[in-house]
Prior knowledge:
Layout: H1 5-9, H2 22-28, E1 32-36, E2 41-43, E3 51-57, E4 60-65, E5 71-77, E6 82-83, H3 85-90, E7 98-101, E8 105-111, H4 112-116, H5 125-151, H6 156-171, E9 175-177, H7 182-189, H8 193-205, E10 209-212, E11 215-218
Antiparallel strand pairs: 1-8, 2-7, 3-6, 3-8, 4-5, 4-7, 9-11, 10-11
Amino acid sequence: MEQYFESLKTCPLFDGIGQSELPGMLNCIEAHVSAYIKNQTILREGDPVGTVGIVLSGRIQVEKNDYNGNRTLLARLEPPELFGEAFACAGVQRLPVSVTAVQDSEVMLIPCKRMITACANCCAFHTRVIHNLLHIVAEKNLMLNQKIEVISKRTTKEKLMAFLLVQAKQHNSRMFSIPYDRQALADYLGVERSAMSAELGRLRREGKIDFYKNQFKLL
């Protein structure tokens, strides 16, 4: 477990917790690490909820598939981001989304009840972890509202520009990279890939953007 300490120190869930406290804390909350190969399912829609995950290596994505098999990409996550915390804390019985490895990945899984319930030893870090968890859930809620604002635009062009402007603000730069390939970006925006690619080409010809693969520049 020690090989993951450097990554865990940067995880917002453990903000304010010293490295010397990590071994005892991870043991107390019954954290364990699992490895997944590319395209392997980590959590499946309909599974019982109760686990919070931390990405230790690789990249994962959170997605939802409708009755007809159409995929909506909700998020792509990299180390040391969390997943599943909102559903676990909300007391949802069944997972409404699936979590899949985009690359070969390692994930730390933590039983939510162990994390948010003070143990018999009254470990001091429990209060800190609960505080951090609430902060993370609040931030994720803001991000969700941001996505709703983007995908609520009427046209593919408006959705693209709204998304790219959000990315520019997050990177504090007109030049930035996005974590999606073309199909994943189309799934995230809820549009057809061909129509989106046509709009990207049109925006480039209009002199509004330039791009190469997943690197973009707002002009």
